[in-house]
Amino acid sequence: MTKLTGQCLCGEISFDADGDVPVMANCHCTACRQSTGSAFATLMFMKQTDVNVTGTPKTYQHSSDTGNTMTKSFCGTCGTPMFTQNSAREGMLGLRAGLINEHQEFTPKVNVYTSSKMQATVLDDALPAFEKMPG
Question: Which residue segments constitute the domains of the chain, with CATH numbers given?
Fold first, then answer.
């Protein structure tokens, strides 16, 4: 079991989690790049029932390239991206790894959507890389 805590920049939205982290991934898809304003998003996935959120984040929904509904949650005050949910992965919540207070304890295990990565982004050859989201 893993215990995690984190919060947005202004502290209005916070979370604590206690559960398994089956995967930590770097996502290079266009939507993740645009929603973070960065070269990629690093996400830690946990069961939604293992995460307790304090405060009420705002949400934005869009369709992924596979037609799934993606829900992005963010702080309505400071704009910090907080969570990602994929309709194809019911019950799972992607936590933005940069928000985690215990971040030194974790490293990404995979790169996904490398077909959309920025040209200047150098991938770690030790990590598996997938052009899209693996099945």
Answer: 2-116 (2.170.150.70)
Q: CB atoms < 10 A from the CB of 96, how many?
A: 23
DSSP 29: -
Catalogue the E-assigned strands of the chain. Answer: 2-7, 14-19, 23-27, 41-47, 51-54, 58-63, 69-74, 81-86, 92-96, 110-112
pLDDT per position as a tens digit, 112-135: 999 999 999 999 999 989 998 876
Q: Are the C-beta atoms of 26 and 84 separated by less than 8 Å?
A: no
Q: What are the C-alpha distances in Å from 41 to residues 25, 49, 67, 81, 108?
A: 8, 22, 20, 10, 11
Distance CA(39)–CA(108), nearest Å, equals 15
Bridge partners for 23 per DSSP: 45
Number of H helices, E strands in the chain: 1, 10
| Per-residue tokens: 53 | 């959120």
Q: What's this model's pTM, rounded to 2 decimal places?
A: 0.87
Q: What does DSSP assign to residue 115?
A: G
For 60-96, the pLDDT digits (tens) are 999 988 888 999 999 999 999 999 999 989 999 999 9
